[in-house]
Amino acid sequence: MGPGTDGPRQRPRLPHRTGPQSRLSHGDGRLPRRARSPLNATNGATDRDVRNLPALTGARWLAALVVFVHHAGLAAYLSGEPQRSLLTVGRVGHVGVSFFFVLSGFVLLWSTPPSASAAAFWWRRVARVVPLHLVTAAAALLLGFTIAPSLGPRPATGGWPATIANAVLLSSWVPTWSQAGDPVSWSLVCEAFFYALFPALALLAGRLRARGAWALLVGAALGALAAALAIDTATLDLSRVPLMRLPEFVAGVACGRLVQVRAWPRMRSSVALLLLAVGWVIAGHASRPYAVALATLPGFVALIGALGEQQSYGGTGDAFARWLSRPTLVRLGEWSFAFYLVHILVMRTIEHTVISHPGWRVGPGLALLLGVLALALGISALLHHAIEVPANAAIRVRTQQRSPPLSP
Length: 408
Known about the structure:
Blueprint: E1 9-10, E2 51-52, H1 54-75, H2 80-90, H3 95-111, H4 118-145, H5 159-167, H6 186-206, H7 210-233, H8 242-260, H9 269-285, H10 288-291, H11 297-311, H12 319-324, H13 327-353, H14 362-398
Antiparallel strand pairs: 1-2
C-alpha cells in the first residue's frame, strides 16, 4: 500500500486443504468460477469478511521510519562518526517508498471486495488519499509563503504550474516538478497512476492461475530492470516518474495473487529479511538508478508475501509477524501515511526557523533528532484523527459506498 493506506485486510480462517477438493482452488491454482468478480477473483469471501493483517500494518510504520532516517541523515543533525553512521544506515532509506508501492499492489488485490466496481474503487481511493494530501499541500504552500521558503513555488521546482499539478496529483510526470508542494508527495502521484490502472490489472490477475501469477511476477521484475536501465541512461532523473515505478506495484499485485491461490511458498520471515538485507547492502553500493527499487525488490516481495501468507487466513504468523502485530506498532502503522507526509514539512520548518544542518555532538544532535521525530509523530496522530479518518468517512457516506475500507 502506498503511503496512503487504510491497512492491509485479512480474510477469515478457512480449512487448509490440498489437492483437487480445495475450496480455494481446483488444485492447479484456478479459483472456482463463482469466486470471480468484476475487479478481482477472490476466495469467495464477502465484503463483511475483510479484516486487518496487522503485521503488514506494523511494517508500514517501519518503512515510514526508514524514510525519516534517510531525511534525518541529510538534515545533518549530528557530526563526526555518529553522522557518518546515520548516513550509512539511512543512505538507501528512500527504498521505504518502494516498499509502499509493492505493499499497495499486494493489499489492493487481496482486499478489494468482490462486489466493488471500478467506480467504487476509485471513489474509495479518493476518500483515502486526497483529503490529507490537500491539507499537507496547503500547509506546504502556507509555510512556503511565511517561514519556510524552500517549500513554496520556486523556479527550481517548477513554480506555480508544478504546484497546481501537484495539487491534482500530476506533478511528477514532469521530472523537474517532482519536488513541488510537499516534497514527498511525488509518491502519491505514482499511487494515483497505479489506482487508475488497478481495475484492469485486477481483471488480468483474477484470471491467472498460479503459473500465470509467477509469470506476472517475473515480468514485473524484468520491468523493474528495464526501468532502472531507462533511469540510468536518461539525462533527467526519471526515478520519480510514475511509469518507472509501476513494476513495483505490479509485483505486489502478482504476489497478492499468489497468496490468493495459495501458490506462495511458506517462508519464515527470517529468510525474507535475509534476502532484504542482501538487497539493502547491494543498494548501498549501487548507483541510484539500480538502488531506488531494483536491488531491494526481491526482498520486499518476499517479506510481504511471507507476512501475508502467514496471516492471510487467520494465523498469527512467526515471531517477527507477531512482533509487527503488537498494538503499538499497528497504531503507528495507522498513523504512517500522515507521518510520511508531514515529517519533511517539520524538518524544513525547523531548518528555516530554528537551526539548519547544525552538525552537533551526539547528545544534543540525537536529542534534536528525537524531538523532530516526536513532533512529526504528534502532528501525524492529530491529522489522522482530526482530518484523515473523518474526511475519509464523510466522503464514503457521501458516495454511498458502505462496504468495509480498502487499503492501499
